[in-house]
Every structure is written in structure tokens, then in C-alpha cells.
Protein 1
Amino acid sequence: MDKLVIEGGPSLKGELKVSGSKNATLPILAATLLTDDVCVIRNSPKLRDTMTMVKLLRSLGKTVDIGKDELIISSKGDIQHIADYKLVSTMRGSFCVLGPLLGKLGKAKVSLPGGCVIGLRPVDLHIKGVKALGATVEVEGGYVIVKARHLKGNSVYLGGGFGSSVLATANVMMAAVLARGETTIESAACEPEITDLADFLIAMGAKIKGKGTPQIIITGVKKLHGADFKISSDRIEAGTFLILAVAMRSNLVIREANFNHLLSLIDRLEETGVRFEKDYNLIKVKCPKILKPASVTTFPYPGFPTDLQAQFMALMALTPGVSVITDKVYPDRFMHIAELSRMGANIRREGSNAIIEGVKQLHGAPVMASDLRASAALVIAGLAAKGKTEIHRIYHLERGYENLDEKLIQIGAKISREKE
Ligand code: EPU
């Protein structure tokens, strides 16, 4: 296992290029199960999570060729319907093969994804959605088993106690594209990753209206064909880079970033005094000398993303003054508080709120990455801190950030990878 060793302090200079979106790639790869034709997926990031999905597709009978900048997915024989525990348990995103397998084969047996360090992550909305389309659902031996002779379009409300669900919307959309008749998803997720998935399905011949809105209407078609598709840039990686730039008071340029996908973060950063210039797919960060604290509450898109909560907390931890961060999507996603505190942060948790009293300087320390976004927060804190930080268990980081250490070294960061 590797660890990252960061020597904090030096200011950063230059450009960071954003990779393709992980959370768009995963359901789009799953959607290739809906056709026997060849699909070409471009700009998919080279990550541990995308490789897990590639392995899962292969285990289901797909052929996946990995090119320099594209994945080519084809079928040689029959697709099988069982998604094994070993692959699904390592990555919750794997659960989104349920919808396409059900839509294409009329049956699926997919392992329950299990617990997760960011809190409880149930699948009741996924089950509610496929039941509404006429599937029978059984949960047996840790697997969800769904069957339907013919899926039939229906209206289904997918808003849960914590708002809409990204992957439940993806699963129901992918099951509905081959169902008979019309399906309406109410309280659908509006995340750009769902829009990307809808665009891919449309490129395959699906009929979908309302992508990017809380009401998605799908008219089933008999068959889908192959498609050649480019994944959009990763808004969470772009957001992480913006926060990093501000934490380092470095006027970085972020390339291949979609400004419109980041409005909730831009708004909060402007509140702290930061200014931005945008130019097509470039965002230029203009940092003030003194930063003001800003509070934030996470919500489903277009609200502030829970996937940027930890990174924003690292920034507020080193911004003098008091701020409050509330996570309404994952109220227990606060494992990073203990690690940031080891670096001198002053953070108190009260339920789903974190109250942060920013300090002038964090100091380097050995810390443990607990999940993907918490790891990114520790990288930001480590780069801004005084002295040496060692981040252990960085495999979390490799799940979602493509070549992060190499990208940061190119703009002047002092980071090295060492064996544990
Ligand atoms: N929820 C339910 N029932 C369900 C499904 C979800 O109550 O059946 C709840 C969840 O417990 C949570 C809320 O609904 O409180 C939202 O969860 P959602 O289903 O939207 O999450 P997800 O689809 O499983 C995706 C991303 C996560 C990201 C969330 C929220 C992928 C592969 N994962 O997960 O990404 O945090 O949406 O935006 O797309 C990450 O990349 O680090 C990551 C965790």
C-alpha cells in the first residue's frame, strides 16, 4: 500500500486539467449492457472505480478493450444476470447494473452494496422504482433479485427522506428505456451525471425528455443500438481544484471545467472574497489577501454537493472566523473531522453540523484517508499546512482522482508517493 508524503507550504502556479467525470462514467458503462452493439466511451477517467466497473462488465460477459483515450465495449455471447458480491461490495456505483440488466434480460441478481464509511446508504428507492415498472423484487442471501416478463411504464416518485437519489434515478431510467409505454420519474435527480447518462441513452436510440429536471419522461423503445460518446468533465474534481487554489492563495487556472456545474461552490467561494474569471472551459481563480469564513449546507444538485463538503471544510479550517457546515445528504459524512483536528483544526460536530473555528495555520501530521472525498480534503490541508503530512490508505484517492499527485507536482506541489 502507498502513502502520500506532502511537504506543505510552497505556493502553486499554473494550470490544472480536469479529467472526465467518474460518477457519469459508472452508470454510462452500465448502460452499455442495454445493447449488443459496440459502444465507444471517450474521456472516461483512468481510476480504480472505472476499472472495477470494467471488471464487472467483463464478469457479466461483455468484452471491454481499453484504448489510449477510449473504452470499447462489445458483446461476443450472452450476457449473464448475476453481479457478484466481490465486485459490488468494493464499489457502491456497481449497483447501477441492476436497471440495465433488468431492462435487457428481464432479470437481475445484484449483490447489495453493503455499509459505507460515509453513512447508511440504503437502496429502497431503487427497489421502489423497479417495482413500479412491474418487476418482482426479493432480497435473499445479500442479493437483490428482480424479475419481470415485460416491464411496463408507470409513474414513480423517487424523492426519499434525503431528497432525490442519483443512482436510483439512473437505475430506473435504464430499466425504463426498454419498457413498454411511458415512465415518469418524479423528484428525479438533476445532477449533471444524470444528464450525461440521459444523453448517452438518447445517443443509443432511447426517448427521454426532461433530463436535468425533477421530472423525467421516458418512452420505451424496442431496441437500443451502439453509440460513440464523450463523458463530460468531472465537476467534483474541478471543485476540488478551485478549493485547493483558494486554500493555497494561488491564482490557478482550471482547464476543462464547466463553470455552470459549479455555481453553488462559486457562490460560497465568492462569499469568502474570491473572484473568478471564466473563459469557455477555463476558470481563473483570483484570491484575496484575507479570506472571510462562509457557511454551507449540502443539498442535491443544483445545491452544494456533499462530494465537496470535506474539501470545503479543510478550507474553512484554515480561514480565521467561525463557519458552519451542514450535510443534509449524508448527515454522518464527517470522518475527516478527526483527521483535520490532528493537523490543528478546531472543529466541533453537532449532529449533521460541523462548527469550525478557523485557525491561521494548520500543521503537518500523519493522517488516515477514510473515504475518497475526505482524502482530497487531507491533500488540501496537507499542502496548505506547515511541515510534513503523511496520508495513509491513499487507495481511496485513487478511486476518484486521476493522477492527482502528478497533476499537483506539475504546478509546484511537493508530494511524493512512498511504500508503507
Ligand atoms: N438514499 C435513500 N434510499 C435509496 C438511495 C439513496 O434513502 O434507495 C439516500 C442516501 O442515503 C442519501 C441520499 O439518498 O442520503 C442521496 O444518495 P444518492 O442515492 O443520491 O447517492 P448515490 O447515488 O448512491 C451518488 C454518488 C456519490 C454522491 C451521491 C450524492 C455515484 C457513483 N456516487 O451516490 O458519490 O455522494 O450520489 O450526490 O454516482 C463520491 O463520488 O465520492 C460519492 C460518494
Protein 2
Amino acid sequence: MNRDIARAAQLLRAGGLVAFPTETVYGLGADASNPQAVARLYAVKRRPADHPVIVHFDITERAFTWARDVPTAARRLAKRFWPGPLTLILKRSALARDFITGGQDNVGVRVPAHPVAHELLAAFGGGIAAPSANRFGLVSPTSAAHVRADLGADVDLVLEGGPSEVGIESTIVDLSRAKPVVLRPGKVTAAEIEAALGEAVAEKASDAPRHSGGLERHYAPRTPVRLVPAYRLDREIAQLKDKVAVLAFSRPDERVEYWLRMPRDPQAYAHKLYAALRELDSAQCEAILIEAPPATPEWVAVLDRLRRACG
Ligand code: TXA
Ligand code: MG
């Protein structure tokens, strides 16, 4: 076994915090059965104590021991999408205690696909609680360097795993109620979930359980962000007095000093998005203007993150 993995598993057993790569974003991990470790995790994240956190596992069978009721729909989705960028909300078993679920009667579980995450989870052998490894409310990290920049010495170890392939957080599907509901869109689309289940899924009901991804101004850079239709981009740039940063599909007005070109493919866009927002945020401009992608189903997850970045 890789020495870093062995050390990481040892740190987790001792109640430490280990940041690790997943295919979606980097997670900040703690032993999900250890209340002191999870309390420290929340303190470092500066996250309110009543927010639930996702528990990660190496294999499906272990993940399902944290649920007291595993409906057929959960087995189907696990078979089709795990390991992968999908989180299931299920009715909790006694293993998922209040400090993990925010006192709710359900638990979020996920089996990630990244090889380093898998090795760590297998070496640790239990559930690892892991929110994205950023401070509460800021953009999720998609590289080990992002994690170090955000959390620095507050984490005991950061495992290196290259840039996160997917680049945005997992799709969350709530299966704890009568009908499946997508609480957070992601790479796994509602249409793919419907196809796997053979039934319709709703997209975020108003009575959805608390989840911090549902709060306004989440995943946001410090610079004010605005989503602008392509035809209005040059006009809005001209109206700003100070420096402006732009995220666009093609070169904006040539006076714009800070700009990044984004791919026209939604998955390639998601892969680059958070690193791009961080880079433009660091230019300390008056605003970040983002050329709006088309409002079509393939762009749902990216548009969700862009709207949140606008706050
Ligand atoms: O891709 C991901 O999901 C990443 C990687 C590290 O796995 N994790 C992640 O965690 O994005 P976090 O904590 O930043 O966002 C998880 C979302 C939050 O909005 C949280 O409130 C929600 O999942 N959540 C967790 N458990 C829940 C539950 N039992 N019921 C409803 N929402 C839940
Ligand atoms: Mg997060």
C-alpha cells in the first residue's frame, strides 16, 4: 500500500482530518463515526452544526449498512452509477448519528470512483464524512493546491490526486421519500436517473430537506459575479468603470484584460469552472461577468453552479 494512504488512514483513525481527491471535487475527510473528529471538521469548514454531511465508502454493500431501508431504486442507481459522482439520501441506520445527519432521519451516502479515494476508503474500512474541502460558502476545490490555499495548516494531510475530472459536486438524489427527487444536479443527469429507474424523478421540491447546497450564495467567489446573455456581454463590459473579469466562449471586447475562454461542451466546461472562477477572483476586479451558456438540459448542472456563484 502507498505510504501516504496508510498514513492517511492512520490519521483518520486517530480523529484527524485528511483532504482527498474525488472525481467530483476534493473532500475534507473525517471518521464519520467519531463525534470529536466530525466536530473539528465542522469547525475547520466553518459550517453550521445542523448541516448534514455526505458519508463516503469504498463499496456499495458497506454504504448500505448506514441505511435502515434500501429501496430497489437505491440498488438500481448504485449498480448503474457507483462508483461515481452520485450521492443517495436514504433513511439512516443507527450507524448514522445526529452529528452526521444534522439531526435528520436520513443520511447521504456515496461511493466515489477516484482511485486515491477508493484506496483510502478501503484502507480505512469505514465511512468517511467529507464535505468539499473549502471554507463554507466558497468555491469547491478541484486540485490539492486549491485545498492548501483554502485550509492550509488546519488539515493534517492533503492527498494529491490531480485535477478533479468532473469538476462540480455530485448529483444528489433523495430516495427517502415516496418519489425520487434530485436535490442537486450534477454530471449524472435527471434523464439518466429516470432511465435507470424507469420512473419519473422530480427536481428539487420546495419541502426538500435542509442541505447547504440549497442556500443562496453558495459556491461563490468574493468578487461579485453576474451571468450575462451573450448578446449583452459587450454592452455590460462597457458600462463597468473599473477592471472587469470575463468568462466567455469567445474573446470579449479587446479592452478586457482578464478573461478566460470556456469550452462549448458542458462536461469540459464543468471540469474547468471552479479553477477558472478562482483565477478570475484573484484578479480583484469590480465584477466577474459570465457569458451565459444555453438553457438546455445538458447545461442544467453548470447553470446551477453559475447561478449560485452569482448569489
Ligand atoms: O461531490 C460531492 O458530493 C463532494 C465530494 C467531496 O464527495 N461533497 C460535497 O459535500 O459536495 P458538501 O458537504 O459540500 O455538499 C453536500 C451536500 C450539502 O448540500 C449537504 O447539506 C447535502 O449534501 N446533504 C448531505 N447529507 C444530506 C442529507 N441527509 N439530506 C439532505 N442533504 C444532505
Ligand atoms: Mg460544498
